[in-house]
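ok, trying the design again with the full structure, not the truncated one.
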């Protein structure tokens, strides 16, 4: 089964053709990063307009690379939640029109489910059940993947997501948007131990809180500026990355141990962070766990992961009609169509 998938939840316009949920036939991503970098973050109105301008060409290129025509695909998959509502609506309406015009099934896909499914494209042997850590600009979840379309969230952020914290801390340090990759690079040459940052506590031991950590970085920088002291940005980046990675790793591994999982996976944009990948790989080895993480090109937003999850949603009969709407927020384990 070949699915044409559409992703437009934030600032990437993407389309892909995926075969049987496991094989990438083609994948195209048009990014808007350079434009949003001017504003230090994603501007929703600009993102929506760029999706409108790009989506037809991106989908056409995905089909061309797959050496297919639109009529050749078996179904249309699309991200419909969560994300920037204006951006989502562009993808949803394009997919609805295409499915209606071609007479093909329309498969709605939850964005976070898509991130988890990115691992299926990299590891044909990976099957549920397993535990997954989803860390991105808008989400930080510890998820029990009970089946391909059955999930239980046992931990989530109560304020900022990990990726959001990276970007805001990076901005305070003077790095461009998106800041995560700059902190990652600086942390490799920074002196560890020069700065000590807090690890916020949560009532649920598996929930995350990054707002206090972000504030601590901002306050440290402001206090140094007021005193005329110079901040060692590389050392601060090293301390920040180490702290975030320890928080994510400790809570995730603890949750996996307590729930009896020996298979763990990582997904989402922050999964591209070298410190987090190394931290989880080491922790998995120490605890006798099998660790799965997507290649870098499948960590950020892309349509290939949406097509992978769409295949399993289709198998469960999760089909939508032309009344499908987009939703800015929606729980991973309580989807609605």
């Amino acid at each position: 089964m070949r699915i044409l998938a559409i992703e437009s939840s934030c600032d990437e316009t993407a389309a892909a053709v995926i075969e049987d949920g496991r094989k990438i036939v083609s994948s195209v991503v048009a990014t808007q990063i350079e434009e949003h970098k001017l504003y230090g973050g994603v501007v929703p109105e600009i993102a929506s307009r760029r999706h409108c301008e790009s989506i037809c060409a991106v989908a056409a290129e995905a089909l061309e690379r797959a050496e297919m025509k639109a009529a050749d695909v078996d179904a249309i998959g699309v991200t419909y939640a969560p994300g920037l509502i204006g951006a989502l609506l562009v993808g949803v309406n394009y997919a609805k029109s295409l499915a209606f015009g071609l007479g093909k099934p329309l498969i709605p896909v939850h964005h976070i489910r898509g991130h988890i499914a990115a691992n299926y494209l990299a590891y044909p042997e990976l099957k549920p059940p397993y535990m997954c850590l989803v860390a991105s600009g808008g989400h930080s979840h510890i998820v029990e993947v009970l089946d391909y379309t059955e999930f239980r969230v046992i931990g989530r952020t109560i304020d900022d997501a990990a990726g959001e914290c990276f970007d805001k801390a990076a901005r305070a340090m003077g790095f461009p948007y998106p800041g995560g990759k700059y902190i990652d690079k600086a942390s490799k040459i920074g002196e560890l131990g020069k700065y000590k940052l807090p690890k916020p506590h949560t009532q649920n031991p598996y929930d995350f809180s990054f707002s206090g950590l972000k504030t601590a970085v901002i306050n440290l920088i402001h206090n140094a500026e007021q005193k005329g002291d110079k901040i060692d940005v590389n050392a601060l980046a090293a301390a920040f990355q180490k702290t975030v990675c320890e928080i994510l790793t400790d809570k995730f591994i603890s949750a996996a141990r307590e729930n009896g999982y020996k298979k763990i996976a990582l997904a989402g944009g922050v999964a591209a962070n070298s410190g987090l990948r190394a931290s989880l790989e080491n922790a998995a080895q120490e605890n006798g766990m099998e660790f799965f993480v997507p290649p870098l090109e499948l960590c950020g937003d892309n349509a290939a992961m949406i097509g992978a999850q769409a295949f399993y949603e289709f198998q469960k009969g999760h089909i939508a009609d032309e009344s499908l709407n987009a939703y800015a927020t929606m729980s991973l384990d309580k989807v609605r169509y």
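Keeping the full-length input from now on. The two ends are 22 Å apart (CA to CA).
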